[in-house]
């Protein structure tokens, strides 16, 4: 780790606060599942909360916030690539389900 990176590292209290925040988000997700929301609304909100949790985990617990920006951008671009490739597979899965293959 470089000298500059060492000066930006927060203390243990900060990581405990981040961890408690992640637990609170997970608690909100659990509570939301029992509130009777429609499937679409529930799925959308849970996906957004999961994305926020993943971003917090990446930035603080995997220390991506303190690394070079190119590492973060390479991760973002790889996610976009995976999503685009998944988009190429989903139509075939729907076709297979419609003809009776499970």
Written overview of the protein:
By secondary structure, the chain is mainly α. The protein has four helices and no strands. The protein has helices spanning about 5, 10-35, 40-60, 70-100. The radius of gyration is 19 Å and the shape is flat.
Identify the notable features of this structure and list them briefly.
102 residues, mainly alpha, 4 helices
Measured by DSSP, the beta-strand proportion falls in under 5%
Poorly predicted residue ranges: none
Enumerate how many helices there are, as a single number.
Answer: 4
What is the C-alpha radius of gyration, as a whole number of Å? 19 Å
In short:
The protein has 102 residues and is mainly alpha-helical.
SSE layout and pairing:
Layout: H1 3-7, H2 12-33, H3 39-61, H4 69-98
Helix pairs in contact: 2-3
């Amino acid at each position: 780790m470089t000298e500059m990176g060492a000066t930006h590292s927060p203390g243990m209290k900060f990581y405990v606060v981040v961890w408690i925040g992640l637990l609170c988000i997970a608690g909100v997700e659990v509570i939301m599942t029992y509130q009777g929301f429609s499937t679409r609304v529930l799925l959308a909100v849970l996906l957004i909360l999961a994305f926020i949790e993943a971003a917090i985990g990446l930035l603080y617990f995997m220390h991506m916030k303190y690394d070079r920006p190119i590492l973060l951008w390479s991760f973002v671009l790889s996610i976009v690539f995976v999503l685009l490739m998944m988009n190429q597979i989903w139509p075939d899965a729907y076709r297979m389900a419609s003809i009776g293959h499970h």
